[in-house]
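User: Can you fold this complex?
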Amino acid sequence: MTIPIHKAAIIGGGVIGGGWAARFALNGWQVAVYDPDPEARRKLDEILANARAALPAVLDSTLPPEGEVQIVESVEAAVTEAAWVQESVPERLEIKHKVFAEIARFTSPDCVVASSTSGYKPTDLQAGSPRPEQLIVAHPFNPVYLLPLVEVVAGEATSPETTERAKALLTSLGMKPLVVRKEIDAHIADRFLEAVWREALWLVKDGVATTEEIDDAIRYGFGLRWAQMGLFETYRVAGGEAGMAHFIAQFGPCLQWPWTKLMDVPELTDELVQTIADQSDAQSGAHSIRELERIRDTNLVGILRALRTTNYGAGRDLNTWDAQLEGDNT
Amino acid sequence: MTIPIHKAAIIGGGVIGGGWAARFALNGWQVAVYDPDPEARRKLDEILANARAALPAVLDSTLPPEGEVQIVESVEAAVTEAAWVQESVPERLEIKHKVFAEIARFTSPDCVVASSTSGYKPTDLQAGSPRPEQLIVAHPFNPVYLLPLVEVVAGEATSPETTERAKALLTSLGMKPLVVRKEIDAHIADRFLEAVWREALWLVKDGVATTEEIDDAIRYGFGLRWAQMGLFETYRVAGGEAGMAHFIAQFGPCLQWPWTKLMDVPELTDELVQTIADQSDAQSGAHSIRELERIRDTNLVGILRALRTTNYGAGRDLNTWDAQLEGDNT
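Assistant: Here's the predicted assembly.
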């Protein structure tokens, strides 16, 4: 009954920052958001409404009382007395450096200062920082209030305590922190997304498939596999009793085939952008973005609930989704 | 009450051919399998047992009475009087050509002769065939009895009637036929899988992530998204009210970043293969392949059931999963 109240500061309240705000608030944290956008309150409230409709439906147990989400007028007001600061400002290094310098002035040394960046490595962010040891990358996935994965990447100057604190705290929010072993451009997951995105652009450009056909190729096939078992375990099963080495020996030669389009970067001409936008309208234009968000979240809740009673229930994995209530640590 | 009984011939009864046999049999077809492997019966029965445990659990309605699955001693015995022939022999063109020549001798002209190949284009398969117009690619995804997607690719000589018949018939099996507009190496989905696989090999080779960490990066994050909404629709939502063109303008420049590893093909040395096999053992070795299959299928059933009541229930899509009982066509 005595849940400690923490304060999280969210710097940048867009789709990602707003998702973080909702994730913290629904887990009982007080949240202060700094974002100069005059529309910030409306956008935040919409994300909070989505999160309230979705996250509790995944869980059997109840969440703690929701924390308050305030919009404040300065970085100082946001980060003062915060135990966690999450930076989600635009992906421009000079802006981020300025924000981190300001954050360092008003936070205590044991506050974790995390960046949502996918484009920069933590050591890039730490350059010139007066307190780089508290700075770390915590890269989430949209919708942040619902998807468990968060990539945690330490920079050269990040203290081991910061990494440990980040991992424990993200776990307490019901997330799955994946501590990345080495700094690398785009961390891990986005490298895969980038590879698929590049290839998808070629397929549209060359008229092989429309955006809808590509989406169908994903969601009726390997997307269903990957929601519950990753690449390697799926292939382990496909390899059957002969094992993983046998599977690779079979599959390996394919890498030499002339799938050259996979390698090149397609030119994003105005024409290609327009083709994609038009096809996307034809595919999804009957629904507003808000409707699509609700469809997505309803689907995700259904999938996550199903996995809690199968994959998780089979005892193969830590039950991330109840961790925040039972104090488990991954 | 008067369900017509069809006969399907399965040439090659491994993981893919066996999955096809199960898909047809559970939908009431008589199935004849030709495979010289002396273990074929045992392997087929294991796949059938998996399919019986999984496919009915996805559906609210009941399937027709299961068809018989026989193993026969020749291609001739398998394909005679068949309405559908599915070739899933090893990926070697000269073997496939021989098999298709044999099939053509004993099938009627209106029989669809489909290949499960991912490695060859249908026009390659048609070279030298006495009856190329009935030949088409129908590339499924493992487990074939459960995953809906099947890529349908016509070759230069494939008749429009064959394509139409293939599409209707696959739909009647509860599948989602995706007719690919142009012949292209690896069709569509495998090009994405290849891109991700290559990048994953680099990450393991460079010690950035283990096989388990890569699998976690997929299944706790974008894998959950892709089970229910593909690449383009997901990004449409992420782009928010500003729309798809805005999203691409933001994301586009990333394609120029130096993610060079994405482009190269890693050398599959013995050492790398061993590293992957060892990491995969550490990750999944506590479970037999049979157990992993059951975990996978139980998860897939849970996800597909969940999606039937959300995504499908929202009226956004044809209800593929009941199509075989209601005669719908996609």
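Confidence is low (pLDDT under 50) at residues 317-330 of chain A. Residues 198 and 265 of chain A are 7 Å apart (CA to CA).
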